[in-house]
Amino acid sequence: MKGSAMSTARGVALVRALEMQRPEAERISSDPYATRFADPLLLRLTRLTIASGVSSLVGIEPMINFALLRERYVDDIMRNELTAGAGQIVVLGAGFDTRAYRLDRPDVVVFEVDHPDTQADKRGALADVVVPFPATVRFVPVDFDIDDLDERLTAAGYDPARRTVFVWQGVIPYLTQTGVDHTLAVVARNTHPQSLLVFDYGYVETKVRMSWFVRLYTGLVRERMLFGFPRGGLAAYLGPRGFDVVGNVECAELRDRYVPAARRFPVTAGVAIATVRAHRQ
């Protein structure tokens, strides 16, 4: 994922920045660094489109809400795994994810894997607020089209014998099946048996129903949605590729878990979040 003024990475950061404008007690997730990646004018315009109902009309509000639910759920998964003994985090396609800078665990190494252009944008945006950069954060520059993920992680100090949380957030829909399978293979053969991989995905059936605005936006930023799993077919796909599904949640369940009943919060039915572990050898 290359950095740009307009990208899905910035779009997700914008969503997190919007949530930070709510009172702390009402937030679904909190990211004090999100505004570093959000254009102030676009932030105000997005608030206006949500308040006016335009975002609902064009079909983006359910996806905005999914991004918030995903942020909270992945945070919870990550914290639970660290409490259970994980000592590494690998963020695949890290974009402008800031968990590494909000994590108060100096004993945990975080590997941020992404395109070097995006990493440069990120470091520039955080340069005067994250001082010094945590020594436990390792930037792993990878151009997924030409670089070997396995080699780059090893060179950065990744230890396959250490229990790890792999976060693969907001990436799979924009990959080809070959790209998905390659990443799954790297994780499956180079990880501690108790490591966990958490990722979000869309159902194959959803692509034809995606709102015209979402299709337009992803087309403009050249991050078209390419891949999805068939509804009910996750385990059948992942089993031969070395993984057992240990959890799978959809938006409605996450809304019931995290959102106060009084808050208007439309969600999409076409996406989910999976947690999986590699087969024990």
Quick overview:
The chain is 39% helix and 16% strand. The protein has 281 residues and is of the alpha/beta class.
How does this structure look, described?
The chain has helices spanning 8-19, 40-52, 54-57, 61-83, 99-102, 116-126, 149-155, 177-189, 212-220, 234-238, 251-258, and strands at 88-92, 109-114, 137-141, 164-168, 196-202, 243-250, 271-278. It is globular and about 50 Å long. The protein has a single domain (8-278), classed as Rossmann fold (3-Layer(aba) Sandwich). It is built from eleven helices and seven strands. The chain is an alpha/beta fold.
CATH superfamily: Vaccinia Virus protein VP39
**Helical residue percent?**
25-40%
Q: What is the CATH T-level topology?
A: Rossmann fold
Q: Number of helical segments?
A: 11
Describe the largest sheet. Answer: 7 strands, mixed
| Terminus-to-terminus distance | 33 Å
Task: Name a few traits of the molecule.
single chain, 281 residues, alpha/beta, Rossmann fold, 7-stranded mixed β-sheet, 16% strand, globular
Mind sketching the topology for me?
Elements: H1 8-19, H2 40-52, H3 54-57, H4 61-83, E1 88-92, H5 99-102, E2 109-114, H6 116-126, E3 137-141, H7 149-155, E4 164-168, H8 177-189, E5 196-202, H9 212-220, H10 234-238, E6 243-250, H11 251-258, E7 271-278
Parallel strand pairs: 1-2, 1-4, 2-3, 4-5
Antiparallel strand pairs: 5-7, 6-7
